[in-house]
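Please go through this protein, sequence plus C-alpha coordinates, and consider how the sequence yields the C-alpha coordinates. Keep your notes short.
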Amino acid sequence: MKTIYYFLFVILFTIASCKGKSEKAAETLPDSEQTASATTAGESAPAEKKRYEIKSGKVVYNGPMGVIQTLYFDNYGALETFTTELEMMGVKSKDCQIRRDGYQYSFKEGETTGTKSAWYTNDMNYSKMDVKLMERYKVKDLGTETIAGKNCRKFSAEFGSSPMTTWVWNNIMVKTITKMGNGEMVIEAASIEECPVDAAVFDIPETITFTEV
Protein backbone atom coordinates (compact mmCIF):
# COMPACT_ATOMS: atom_id res chain seq x y z
CA MET A 1 0.00 0.00 0.00
CA LYS A 2 2.83 2.40 0.83
CA THR A 3 4.37 1.74 -2.59
CA ILE A 4 1.06 2.54 -4.28
CA TYR A 5 0.78 5.85 -2.45
CA TYR A 6 4.39 6.67 -3.31
CA PHE A 7 3.77 6.31 -7.03
CA LEU A 8 0.49 8.21 -6.79
CA PHE A 9 2.37 11.00 -5.07
CA VAL A 10 4.93 11.20 -7.87
CA ILE A 11 2.17 11.25 -10.48
CA LEU A 12 0.20 13.93 -8.67
CA PHE A 13 3.24 16.15 -8.29
CA THR A 14 3.75 15.90 -12.02
CA ILE A 15 0.15 16.98 -12.61
CA ALA A 16 0.38 19.77 -10.05
CA SER A 17 3.54 21.20 -11.56
CA CYS A 18 1.85 21.09 -14.97
CA LYS A 19 4.27 18.99 -16.98
CA GLY A 20 2.80 16.78 -19.68
CA LYS A 21 3.30 15.03 -22.97
CA SER A 22 3.50 16.73 -26.32
CA GLU A 23 -0.04 15.80 -27.33
CA LYS A 24 -1.33 17.86 -24.42
CA ALA A 25 0.49 21.02 -25.43
CA ALA A 26 -2.09 22.07 -27.98
CA GLU A 27 -4.80 22.09 -25.32
CA THR A 28 -3.00 24.74 -23.30
CA LEU A 29 -2.09 27.04 -26.18
CA PRO A 30 -5.37 28.47 -27.48
CA ASP A 31 -3.96 31.92 -28.20
CA SER A 32 -0.98 34.21 -27.85
CA GLU A 33 -2.02 35.28 -24.37
CA GLN A 34 -1.21 31.86 -22.96
CA THR A 35 2.24 31.75 -21.36
CA ALA A 36 2.68 28.00 -21.68
CA SER A 37 5.35 26.99 -24.19
CA ALA A 38 4.96 24.04 -26.54
CA THR A 39 8.65 24.11 -27.38
CA THR A 40 11.03 21.68 -25.78
CA ALA A 41 12.63 22.82 -22.56
CA GLY A 42 16.08 23.25 -24.06
CA GLU A 43 14.98 25.80 -26.61
CA SER A 44 15.33 29.46 -25.82
CA ALA A 45 12.03 31.27 -25.40
CA PRO A 46 11.01 34.94 -25.31
CA ALA A 47 10.67 36.54 -21.90
CA GLU A 48 6.89 36.21 -21.80
CA LYS A 49 7.24 32.44 -22.20
CA LYS A 50 9.68 31.81 -19.38
CA ARG A 51 8.36 28.89 -17.38
CA TYR A 52 9.14 30.45 -14.02
CA GLU A 53 9.41 34.10 -13.12
CA ILE A 54 12.70 33.76 -11.26
CA LYS A 55 15.94 32.58 -12.86
CA SER A 56 17.10 29.85 -10.52
CA GLY A 57 16.35 28.24 -7.21
CA LYS A 58 15.63 25.20 -5.07
CA VAL A 59 12.33 23.97 -3.63
CA VAL A 60 12.02 21.14 -1.09
CA TYR A 61 8.61 19.47 -0.80
CA ASN A 62 7.16 17.22 1.88
CA GLY A 63 4.56 14.63 0.98
CA PRO A 64 2.72 11.62 2.39
CA MET A 65 4.55 8.60 3.77
CA GLY A 66 7.69 10.64 4.47
CA VAL A 67 8.43 11.31 0.80
CA ILE A 68 10.80 14.24 0.23
CA GLN A 69 11.10 15.79 -3.22
CA THR A 70 13.54 18.47 -4.31
CA LEU A 71 13.32 20.66 -7.39
CA TYR A 72 16.40 22.50 -8.68
CA PHE A 73 16.02 24.82 -11.66
CA ASP A 74 17.97 27.36 -13.68
CA ASN A 75 17.48 29.54 -16.76
CA TYR A 76 13.87 30.17 -15.77
CA GLY A 77 13.06 26.46 -15.86
CA ALA A 78 14.90 25.43 -19.04
CA LEU A 79 17.09 23.27 -16.77
CA GLU A 80 15.59 21.14 -14.02
CA THR A 81 16.66 18.35 -11.71
CA PHE A 82 13.94 16.69 -9.67
CA THR A 83 14.64 14.08 -6.99
CA THR A 84 12.32 11.87 -4.96
CA GLU A 85 13.58 10.29 -1.73
CA LEU A 86 11.78 7.61 0.24
CA GLU A 87 12.61 5.26 3.09
CA MET A 88 10.56 2.07 3.13
CA MET A 89 11.09 -0.71 5.69
CA GLY A 90 14.53 0.69 6.47
CA VAL A 91 15.57 0.82 2.82
CA LYS A 92 16.27 4.23 1.32
CA SER A 93 15.79 5.01 -2.36
CA LYS A 94 16.34 8.08 -4.49
CA ASP A 95 14.91 8.60 -7.95
CA CYS A 96 16.28 11.38 -10.16
CA GLN A 97 15.02 13.17 -13.22
CA ILE A 98 17.23 15.61 -15.11
CA ARG A 99 15.41 17.73 -17.67
CA ARG A 100 17.43 19.64 -20.22
CA ASP A 101 17.91 20.18 -23.97
CA GLY A 102 14.47 18.79 -24.73
CA TYR A 103 15.00 15.48 -22.90
CA GLN A 104 14.26 13.94 -19.53
CA TYR A 105 16.85 11.55 -18.08
CA SER A 106 15.40 9.28 -15.39
CA PHE A 107 17.41 6.97 -13.14
CA LYS A 108 17.63 5.55 -9.64
CA GLU A 109 20.64 6.42 -7.53
CA GLY A 110 23.01 3.47 -7.25
CA GLU A 111 21.95 1.86 -10.54
CA THR A 112 23.81 1.94 -13.83
CA THR A 113 20.90 2.15 -16.28
CA GLY A 114 18.16 4.69 -16.87
CA THR A 115 15.79 6.02 -19.52
CA LYS A 116 15.86 9.00 -21.84
CA SER A 117 12.66 10.47 -23.25
CA ALA A 118 11.51 13.62 -25.00
CA TRP A 119 10.53 16.31 -22.51
CA TYR A 120 7.88 18.79 -23.44
CA THR A 121 6.79 21.59 -21.17
CA ASN A 122 3.07 21.91 -20.66
CA ASP A 123 3.00 24.62 -18.03
CA MET A 124 -0.22 26.27 -17.05
CA ASN A 125 -0.20 29.83 -15.80
CA TYR A 126 -3.48 30.07 -13.92
CA SER A 127 -3.42 33.85 -13.73
CA LYS A 128 -3.22 34.19 -17.54
CA MET A 129 -5.21 31.15 -18.60
CA ASP A 130 -7.50 31.30 -21.60
CA VAL A 131 -11.16 31.78 -20.64
CA LYS A 132 -12.19 28.56 -22.39
CA LEU A 133 -9.63 26.57 -20.43
CA MET A 134 -10.77 28.16 -17.19
CA GLU A 135 -14.31 27.07 -17.95
CA ARG A 136 -13.24 23.59 -19.01
CA TYR A 137 -11.27 22.93 -15.83
CA LYS A 138 -13.56 25.03 -13.60
CA VAL A 139 -10.67 27.21 -12.48
CA LYS A 140 -11.39 29.66 -9.68
CA ASP A 141 -9.12 32.36 -8.29
CA LEU A 142 -9.26 32.07 -4.49
CA GLY A 143 -7.07 35.06 -3.66
CA THR A 144 -3.72 34.96 -1.88
CA GLU A 145 -2.23 33.07 1.03
CA THR A 146 1.23 32.82 2.58
CA ILE A 147 2.85 29.39 2.21
CA ALA A 148 6.49 28.68 3.12
CA GLY A 149 6.98 32.40 3.62
CA LYS A 150 5.83 33.28 0.10
CA ASN A 151 2.76 35.30 -0.86
CA CYS A 152 1.06 32.77 -3.15
CA ARG A 153 -1.90 32.92 -5.50
CA LYS A 154 -4.47 30.25 -4.71
CA PHE A 155 -6.53 28.47 -7.35
CA SER A 156 -8.95 25.57 -7.49
CA ALA A 157 -9.49 23.42 -10.58
CA GLU A 158 -10.96 20.09 -11.60
CA PHE A 159 -8.84 17.77 -13.72
CA GLY A 160 -10.97 14.74 -14.49
CA SER A 161 -12.24 13.20 -11.27
CA SER A 162 -9.56 14.83 -9.10
CA PRO A 163 -10.46 18.30 -7.76
CA MET A 164 -7.27 20.18 -6.95
CA THR A 165 -6.38 23.31 -4.99
CA THR A 166 -3.01 24.79 -5.90
CA TRP A 167 -0.90 27.61 -4.46
CA VAL A 168 1.66 29.14 -6.83
CA TRP A 169 4.43 31.70 -6.46
CA ASN A 170 6.15 33.10 -9.55
CA ASN A 171 4.46 30.27 -11.48
CA ILE A 172 6.15 27.68 -9.24
CA MET A 173 3.94 25.15 -7.52
CA VAL A 174 4.23 25.68 -3.75
CA LYS A 175 1.40 23.53 -2.43
CA THR A 176 -1.33 21.36 -3.84
CA ILE A 177 -4.20 19.39 -2.31
CA THR A 178 -5.79 16.76 -4.54
CA LYS A 179 -8.93 14.94 -3.49
CA MET A 180 -8.83 11.19 -4.02
CA GLY A 181 -12.07 9.43 -3.14
CA ASN A 182 -12.71 10.11 0.51
CA GLY A 183 -9.16 11.26 1.17
CA GLU A 184 -6.72 13.80 -0.14
CA MET A 185 -3.09 14.01 -1.19
CA VAL A 186 -1.12 17.00 0.09
CA ILE A 187 2.19 18.19 -1.35
CA GLU A 188 3.70 21.28 0.28
CA ALA A 189 6.98 23.16 0.03
CA ALA A 190 8.99 23.09 3.24
CA SER A 191 11.47 25.63 1.90
CA ILE A 192 11.91 27.80 -1.18
CA GLU A 193 15.24 29.39 -2.07
CA GLU A 194 15.76 31.91 -4.85
CA CYS A 195 19.46 31.28 -5.39
CA PRO A 196 22.12 30.26 -7.91
CA VAL A 197 22.32 26.50 -8.54
CA ASP A 198 25.58 24.67 -9.21
CA ALA A 199 25.65 23.75 -12.90
CA ALA A 200 26.88 20.26 -11.96
CA VAL A 201 23.41 19.51 -10.57
CA PHE A 202 22.14 19.36 -14.17
CA ASP A 203 24.97 17.21 -15.55
CA ILE A 204 23.98 13.86 -17.06
CA PRO A 205 25.87 11.08 -15.18
CA GLU A 206 28.47 9.46 -17.44
CA THR A 207 28.33 6.24 -15.42
CA ILE A 208 24.72 5.56 -16.40
CA THR A 209 23.59 4.02 -19.70
CA PHE A 210 20.34 5.59 -20.86
CA THR A 211 17.88 3.79 -23.13
CA GLU A 212 15.70 6.08 -25.21
CA VAL A 213 11.97 5.40 -24.84
